[in-house]
Amino acid sequence: AEPDYYKQVKSPIDLTRIQQKLKTEEYQSFEEFCEDVELLMENTRTYYKEETEEHKAATELYELYKLTKEKVAKGEPLDKPRVDDNPSSSGSATPSSSMRSISPAPSSRASSNGSSDEVDSDMIEDILCGLLELTDSTGRLICPPFRVLQSKEEFPVYYEKIRHPMDLKTIAEKARGGAYKRMSQVEADVRLLCRNAQQFSGKGSEIYKDAVALMNFFKEKREQVLEKGVHPKR
């Protein structure tokens, strides 16, 4: 990757990582997958100037993505991928080859500062403590609606609308049980937690805004924790 890539791109993603998340079923919804694809292309267009092949490839890929997404939404059959007879004969890079080349391999990066993505329970606890203590500009605690979900019996309408419930208590329990090996796994659950709150409460609501603040804080805290690294085993 270019040496200043992580300074300009705060949330790196590449096709290899997207494929990995598909294989390991990390995506909880089609919307989550779409967010990563759009992030990939937006990162490319942010970093590379308009006249570069990478920027052009990202633009072409985005147009193809939009058409494909529309077909999926309508339930229409998709065209089979077309492979050039002699792709090396063209002077310009194909969208897929250019997109593969713009980001480092997943093993070489996990955070914007280049630190390892490996986590332990102490690192996750550090993040969770920060989330639990997070307040808004008036000093109001943000975490209460996110701490523990009500049961299906107490709040059935929530479970009718939200297919994959998540709360901070569940994340803490998974951390203590050793379920998280990488920070990206923790982030997936925190992102799910925030997205659920936004989906159920709707734009403009206080909880929607709190979910945005919670996710932004997580991203900042994640970088700080990853920079320190895994705690030495006792």
Automatic annotation (TrEMBL):
Keywords: Bromodomain, Chromatin regulator, Nucleus, Repeat, Transcription, Transcription regulation. Residues 73-119 are annotated as: Disordered. Transmembrane segments: none annotated. Residues 1-55, 138-208 form the Bromo domain. GO terms for molecular function: chromatin binding. GO terms for cellular component: RSC-type complex; SWI/SNF complex. Residues 88-116 have a biased composition (Low complexity). Residues 73-85 have a biased composition (Basic and acidic residues). SUPFAM superfamilies: Bromodomain. One of its GO terms (biological process) is transcription elongation by RNA polymerase II. Coiled coil: none annotated. It is found in: Nucleus. This is Bromodomain protein. It comes from Ancylostoma duodenale.
